[in-house]
Sequence to fold (390 residues):
Amino acid sequence: MQTDVLIVGGAAVGSAAAYFLASQPSFKGKVLVIEQDPTYEKSATALSAASIRHQFSTPENIRLSQFGSHFLKTVDEHLSVNGEVPAIGFKERGYLFLATPQGLDILQANHLTQRAEDVDVSLLTPAQLQSRFPWLNVDDLSAGSLGNSGEGWLDAYALMQGFRRKAQSLGVQYRQARVEALHREGRRVTSVRLSTGELITCGTVINAAGTGATALAQSAGISLPVQARKRSIFFFTSNARLDSCPMVIDPSGAYFRPEGEGYLCGIAPSPEQDPECHDFEVQHSLFEEVLWPLLAARVPGFEALRLQRSWAGHYDMNLLDHNAILGAHPDVDNFLFANGFSGHGLQHSPAVGRALSELVTFGEFRTLQLDAFGWGRVIAQRPLHEINVV
Ligand SMILES: Cc1cc2nc3c(=O)[nH]c(=O)nc-3n(C[C@H](O)[C@H](O)[C@H](O)COP(=O)(O)OP(=O)(O)OC[C@H]3O[C@@H](n4cnc5c(N)ncnc54)[C@H](O)[C@@H]3O)c2cc1C
Fold:
């Protein structure tokens, strides 16, 4: 079998790339997506906190998210199939980053970067925070940064399925199989071998395999500095009434936001308790010992809550700088990477999908300049640090 573009991984990033390619008027080729698990049970996409923010410290990340929320708000224009619009349920309720005196300089520096990028964000004093969010304990705070528009959360699974369904309606083929290895000759990947034993020859390969990306790269002789990191999410209910509650990012790194009748929350484990990980066991001690005390200190109403359920998913963590690695490796011309999103790949999937379609079609970025995410800085070991990692 032969295809022009073969995408490994058909979750948010792979399916976004498939959709943008299929809807790109200048692209005339055949697109095949190989996805090992059509239930997406263990994909980061299906297990994510599904939130989008413009409050990054890197201008390129801000721009990726700005396109992301524009796309979500106009999803009916892009992803409708036979008049049916994917029910992504985008709730534009903002992010609130809180800072103690120690974090104030960084919050203010990020604010300047964000305002320079036209992010609709306000710095609030503790008194302003208190009057806007009476349920919040502001005693130890110096400021909060509130996104007024463009930020919020959505149904990640619905977005991914929306990309997939639309791509299929435009002629993209999906196949259930595992890509076992890539065959490389010099500067080109010539074919991929599937778990079925079949060989598929291809013009371009896109690596959208999430935490599976590293093994795939390895089979083509490329060392991708991306490892799986486990993140647990907890859903609880509480009688506390938190009017106009945004996604709140506590100075400790703990986060919570409304979800249905309750709240989602999580926190990254400390680096020493955060090894590469391949199981999906929830880190329950994180909730009891770390999260709940932090939540109750920030929102006194959360002293009484009921944990309802929890799950764990895997981040594809870029060990160099917690930013995406996007585009071709300098040694291989037709193997494009979109990996290492380190916890913000869902919100960036529309912009990254579009960027990949441009790289395939034109050999360069056309809308957003994203060279900063290229392999150059990885090979030079020059990190593009994103400070606002949640
Ligand atoms: C707990 C948690 C919370 C998160 N919260 C957010 C958030 O709030 N906002 C946000 O923007 N991002 C968040 N993220 C990150 C986000 O989910 C990911 O960055 C994003 O979903 C990555 O999408 P992807 O398509 O690259 O990878 P994935 O969703 O992991 O999909 C990769 C796909 O590739 C397939 N695959 C892998 N290897 C192979 C192979 N060899 N052959 C065939 N198929 C293969 C897999 O089956 C899978 O379906 C979170 C992640 C986690 C785990």
